[in-house]
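SAMPLE LOG
Freezer: B-3
Tube label: C17
Construct: single chain, 188 aa
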Amino acid sequence: MERQDRFAIQFGRRVRAERDRRGWSQSEMAERLRANGLTKMHATTIAKIEAVDADDRTQLRGVKLDEAAAFADVFGVTVDTLMGRRARPKADLMFVLESVLHAAREARWTMTASESTLRERAAELADVLADVADVDDAGYAELVEDAERAADALAEAGLVIARVGERPDAGVKQATEEILRAKYGKQE
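STRUCTURE (predicted):
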């Protein structure tokens, strides 16, 4: 049996189990899916998805990604649950952790460049204002001060972001693995 067929069978069985558990008919299920954006979902389609006979693969009706997501939303479970896949908290946490660290590093670089540019432009404006004696103040001095304060705020924010993005990856990963082991036992 092909992997695709196994997933279709598992998905169909789980859909039926979740639907039965809630006491919904196939018509009610189709109606809920239509309300969730699947306009072409009918009771007959639900029946085809649930009618999984491993011996007759011609009867298998797989689902598209948007359909799988809609089923999961209606049931309040994950697509992985409907596919019979085991949750992987460690892999999920590590992915998100690495994403946060990467985003913080990118933000720090952008923040540093913005701070530097803002300081340079504020200094240029102050120099030009000093050279042009006949220009009324018109708030230019205040603009220079505000730009300098903004650059200071960017520098302060950059320090906070640096604390997030410059954590040693190995140490964070090791601590994360220890927390997960303590909470969930051995993880793959």
